[in-house]
Amino acid sequence: MKKLVNEPRAAVREMLEGLVDVSPHLALLSDENVVLRNDLPAVADRKVAVISGGGSGHEPAHAGYVGTGMLTAAVAGDVFTSPSVDAVLAAILAVAGPAGALLIIKNYTGDRLNFALAAELARKEGIPTETVIVADDVALRDLVARERSRGIAGTVLVHKIAGSAAENGLPLAEVARLARSAAEDVATMGIALGACTVPAAGKPSFELGDDEIEFGLGIHGEKGIRRATIDSADAIVSEIVKTLLKDMAPEKTGHVAVMVNGLGATPPMELSIVARKALAVLRDRGCRVTKAWVGNFMTALEMPGCSISLLPLDEERISLLDTAAGASAWPGPGDIAEQRNVLPVARASMTADTATPAPGPLSPLLQQVVLAVAESLEKAEAHLTELDSLSGDGDLGASMERGAKALRALPDSAYANPETLFVATANTLRRTIAGSSGPFYAAALMRAAHSLAAIDLPDASHWDAAFAEAVNSVPEIGGARRGDRTMYDALAAALDAWRAARNDGQSGTDAWQAAATAARAAANATADMRPKLGRASYLGDRALGNPDGGAVAVAIWMEAIAGGIGASGPIRAKA
């Protein structure tokens, strides 16, 4: 287990201290793990206090929701452990005035007992106190009665409804009514892709196979109601949303709010993919999604997975959700468009001539060479991925494979002459090859195209100039130099070999073969170079021992060209 904690038993207190240190609107009780607003008026002038809490490990819940228009205080227990009665009572005494306090409780035995007893003690102290239980986990509906379901991420929406009502100055009974109504209507279901590790335990709470997920998990590291084989994100989300809608009364599936909640280790990319499908399914079912939030709202330490919450909306709830809140973890009113905003792309015209060019004398051979390059890059996908993973981000193989497919898709008109081919290839690689490789290849090909403008049958001197223009563009736009361990090492060696062979009187085809051989040798030599540019430079000596993927890619396509041309190919000897 690797965690950035000191003593596990001190983790909760130290977490709260760090939060309050960077949040001047918050304060921390000296002897209890209670975070409260630091801007409360005199006791007699206080509005209804809204208090929640529970075990820690659900951050940003619950302390992240303390602020104007949301919670007045949050009580934190140990990780996944209910706070004590004394801690809850201390929170009530610290923030409540004559208007009273509302306790929002997630439906777990420890939380219910300790918060309920604290409420009784507060009433004996003369503080009007109400409680609201949130039991929004629909995954358990076939196993237990609604009131016995667990309270999970939908609780955050109840916090907001109650906090806004209190901030608006409503009396305790009305704040409690609105909170109970929201708690009764909100529905949540989650899935886990893996377990989490409680600091004090030191090992995961359960184990999942590489292709397994848990449906209907809680937020304390417990297993779900069933285990299933992982499916696509769309299939999983569809099942969750359909389950949520089945739980809701038909008359309440009109205007809805959606909360896509990460459980701690799910990246924003995946949560947005979940949100995309959730909105689509809801809209297909006739729901009008008025508000939506995506992010980490109630986590389970570092558990990978997510939950989706639905809350039916009316004008009153919309108004309460719109009320501004000063809590650091609340993202705002969550207003969204009724449908995705998509605008057309304005593309620059790369040539003024829009007529389809006629095939030229080199068209068949140009197409033969391009297809040979595409085949070689497709075959090398796994090898390039492996090389790039050792010193980069691992996307080179996939990028080159996408580029190869794009080359195969070039229209016949692209092969009219070298200039037309290089422009078409530059444009398609610019769009399909990710990272820095795409722009480098596009720039090099555009330079070569410019050098061969209006030349249907270049001679060797034309190819000399075009090749030099292409290679020299790489250091010019990227700053690479020989020895930096980049694709330029292979390109520069190839250009030198080409020129030497041409000066010796070799044919263009033989000169290209010499250039390809030099590119391969230079690519292999990068294994002994300390990288000085690009992502690999961050690794220093750790990158030694394996050649640079970009340089190897250059050798691969140069060898493919060498195999694709013959003695009468486009690289012709001077007359």
UniProtKB/TrEMBL annotation:
Keywords: ATP-binding, Kinase, Nucleotide-binding, Transferase
Class in the EC hierarchy, top level: transferase
EC number: 2.7.1.121
Top-rank taxon: Bacteria
One record GO biological process: glycerol catabolic process
One Pfam family, short name: Dak1
Organism name: Pseudohoeflea suaedae
Molecular functions per Gene Ontology: ATP binding; glycerone kinase activity; phosphoenolpyruvate-glycerone phosphotransferase activity
Transmembrane segments: none
Protein name stated in the entry: Dihydroxyacetone kinase subunit DhaK
DhaK domain residues: 7-330
InterPro entries attached to this UniProt entry: DhaK_dom, DhaL_dom, DhaL_dom_sf, Dihydroxyacetone_Kinase
Cellular component per GO, a single term: cytosol
Domain DhaL, first and last residues per copy: 364-563
